[in-house]
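Practice problem: Multicopper oxidase CueO
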Amino acid sequence: MLTRRKVLRVGATAAALAAAPAGLVVGSRSGTARAAESPFTTPLKVPAPLRPVRLAGHDFYRLTTREADVTLLPGTTTRIRSFNGAMSPLIVARRGRPVVIEQVNRLSVPFSMHLHGGHTPQRSDGHPMNQVKPGESRLFRYPNEQRAATLWLHDHSHEDHAENIYRGLAATYLLTDDFEEQLPLPKGRYDVTLQLRDAKFQGDGRLDWDLHGFDERHTILVNGRPRPYFEVAARKYRLRLVNTANERPFLLQLGDGEEFTHIATDGGLLPEPVPTRVLQLWPGERQEIVVDFSRHGVGRKLVLSNTYPYEGESGEVMRFDVVREASDPSRVPGKLRPVPDLGTSAVEREFTMSFDAKTGQHLINGRPFDMHRVDIRPRLGVAETWKIVNGDGEYGIPHSMHPHLDAFKVLDRNGKPPAPGEAGLKDTVTVPAGEYARIQVRFTEHTGLYMYHCHMLSHVQMGMMGQMEITR
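Answer key — C-alpha cells:
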C-alpha cells in the first residue's frame, strides 16, 4: 500500500538526485550496506544478438513470453518472466530493413509489446487495447526508418506491465545505420549493452514483488547479474546504459570520479561529445558513453557506482577489471550528429503531473488514464511545444514524460537552456518536483491512438498516462 510516509521517502530519495545539476557529483549517503550478495563475484554476461530468420525484405523473430527458472544470485534459482527463457536478450536491427516479431504469450497474464523509442504504426506500438491474452500471439512490424539509437522492448499491458518488467521482461533493441557505422567509434566486442535494474530477493532466490516497494530493492542487476565484474582491455569501449528498473534512478560515477565521454542518449548520438564525470540515468532512459580504459592501465579495477543509493545501501553497480593490452583504432570525433530542425511550434500544451494523496492516484492534468478517453489530438507534421509541470512540490516526487511515436528536443528547464547531455533527441524527460521542462515534438507519418505517460512504472499503473489521437 502506498502510504504518505512512503511517498515522502520517494521524494527524499529521488528528487535530490533529479535536482543534481549536470557535472555535479552527489556524495554517497551514509548507511550500512544491505546488498543481498557480495559485489564483484559474478562475471558480467554480455548477450549475443538473437539470430533472425532472414526473409525477403525483413528479419523475422519469434519472442515467446514465458516463465523460466534462471540463476541470478549465485547458488539459487529464480523464476522470472522472460523473452525466450532469457534475461536481457538483444536484437540488432538496421535502418531501412524492417523487423517482424511474432510475440507468443505463454504467461498467465496479458502482455502488450512496446518498442520504447520506436517510430512504429499504431498496430505495432503496444497499446493496451491490443494486449495479447495468455495462449495467443500477435505480429509486430517495426519499419526501422528512424535514426540509429538504443531502444528497448517491454510490456505495455493495462494492469501487469510494472510486474512483468520487474520480473525480467526487458529486451534491448539496437538500431544501426550507415551514418553511425562510418564514425570511428568502438565497434564489435567493444560496443557493449548494459541493462541496469534493481530487485528484492527472498532467501531462496525468489523475486519479491511489491508495486510500492521501490526502496527495498537493494540488489543491483546488470544484464541479470548481481553487481558483476567485467574484464576489459586497455582501450576504448562504447557502453550503452539502459535503465529497465521500475523506479530506480542512477547517478553514475566511475572510480574516484574518472572522466568519460557522453556520446548519445534516447534518440541516438548527441551533436557533439560531452566530457563528464557523472551521468544521470532515469527509468526508461538510455545513455551511451565511451570509456578509455587505456588511461588506467592493465591491473586497474574501476567501480561504477550509483552515488545516490537508497538509505542503508551500498552504491556499487559493477566493476571493470583491466586485464590485457589491445590495439585501438577507434576514436570519438569532435562532431557526432546534428539535431534535426523541427520547425516552429504551432501548438502549445501544458501537462501538470501530480499525486493525489486522497485517492492514491497519479494524475496528468487532474485526471487518471482512461482507455476510452482521448486527451489530445495532435496533427501530423505540426510541431508542438509541451510544458511538463511537476506539481508535486509538497511530496518531492519526481515525474517523467514519455510520448510514444516520435522523439523530441528539450527546449529548456525552468527557463534555462538544457545541459549539453540533453542537446540530442530524447524520448523520456524527468522533471524534479516543483519544476518544469519544455519540449518540442513533431509527430510524423503514422496516425491513430498512442500514449504519453510517466515512466516511473508504479505511477503509470496508478493512472499517470494520457491518450492522444494523431490525425492528418
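Discussion: The chain has four helices and 30 strands. Students who identified this feature from the C-alpha cells alone can consider the problem solved.
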